[in-house]
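[recover] target loaded
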């Protein structure tokens, strides 16, 4: 097939391409599988995006674009543009991306499906206060729409109303986003990858090992733990294939698939869960079209299920092709 890998440029200047490593990994894998592959890197220029697609005439776009220009949620309108152009692509459409990125709306859909989630409140700069139940401190405060731990730091966990409102004000002013305050759930954290559409199935759970985390800090993967390689938080965590009793593994996988279906995720995604000491499973987040780097938790889970990286990428392509034929 003629496949175009669509990605994001940090700047308009194509000569200064600084691709995320996953782009080259996916492109090389697709070529090794026998496909004719091109890479289209765009920043905030809609005309360049349309011209690039028309010039390449792909049979399928492998969509790795997570933002557009300065718009963090730019993957939503770009997916809509692909639909308008009649271009087939991997992963979610604009509606599905919107559902998974609006964390408050996501929780309402999870509630409809009787899935557990942290109780929450939304503080929007331009609409009324909204709550999903009586909240108990401590609360974890984060942007309602951003991902990749943007706006999440040590200050995100608050224990009183003054700290809460300071974090809300900071998110409003620094990120121009609504603030989501949710109850902090103590427990083990798991990432469960899901593949499929009509017959979605869960991969083996990956657990976040916090055993090396700094003493006394809440076990949360904030921006330091995720991205600052020199920090104690980054060095103190690792992801491992979870060792679980069969019954508990099956429970985690079922909740993940139910959440994946509730938010209408397509082709592939990852569901973040917390397991409490009493055995309750909370859905923290549903990541549509999750990160596909070779060492990512999703690829790790696929490998544990017997899908090496080339077969994983091939599976995603086949899922998108089959879905589009329907």
């Amino acid at each position: 097939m003629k496949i175009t890998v669509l990605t994001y440029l940090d700047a308009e200047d194509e000569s200064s391409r600084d691709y995320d490593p996953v782009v080259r990994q996916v492109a090389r894998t697709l070529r090794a599988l026998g496909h004719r592959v091109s890479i289209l890197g765009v920043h905030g220029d809609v005309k360049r995006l349309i011209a690039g697609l028309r010039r390449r005439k792909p049979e399928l776009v492998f969509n790795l674009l997570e933002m557009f220009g300065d718009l963090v949620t730019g993957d939503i309108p770009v997916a809509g543009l692909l639909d308008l152009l009649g271009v087939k692509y991997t992963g979610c459409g604009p509606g599905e991306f919107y559902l998974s990125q609006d964390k408050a709306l996501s929780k309402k859909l999870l509630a409809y499906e009787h899935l557990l989630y942290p109780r929450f409140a939304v503080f929007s700069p331009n609409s009324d206060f909204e709550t999903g139940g009586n909240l108990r401190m401590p609360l974890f405060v984060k942007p309602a729409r951003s991902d990749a731990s943007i706006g999440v730091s040590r200050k995100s966990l608050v224990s009183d109303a003054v700290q809460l409102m300071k974090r809300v004000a900071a998110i409003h002013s620094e990120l121009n986003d609504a603030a989501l305050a949710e109850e902090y759930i103590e427990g083990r954290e798991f990432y469960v990858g899901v593949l499929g559409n009509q017959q979605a199935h869960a991969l083996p759970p990956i657990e976040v090992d916090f055993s090396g985390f700094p003493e006394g800090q809440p076990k949360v993967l904030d921006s330091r733990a995720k991205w600052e390689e020199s920090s104690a938080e980054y060095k103190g965590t690792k992801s491992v294939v979870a060792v679980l009793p069969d019954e508990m593994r099956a429970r985690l996988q079922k909740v993940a698939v139910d959440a994946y279906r509730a938010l209408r995720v397509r082709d592939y995604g990852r569901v973040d869960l917390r397991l409490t000491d009493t055995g309750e499973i909370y859905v923290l987040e549903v990541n549509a079209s999750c990160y596909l780097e070779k060492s990512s938790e999703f690829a790790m889970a696929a490998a544990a299920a017997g899908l090496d990286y080339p077969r994983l990428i091939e599976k995603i392509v086949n899922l998108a092709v089959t879905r589009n034929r329907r």
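[recover] notes: The two ends are 18 Å apart (CA to CA).
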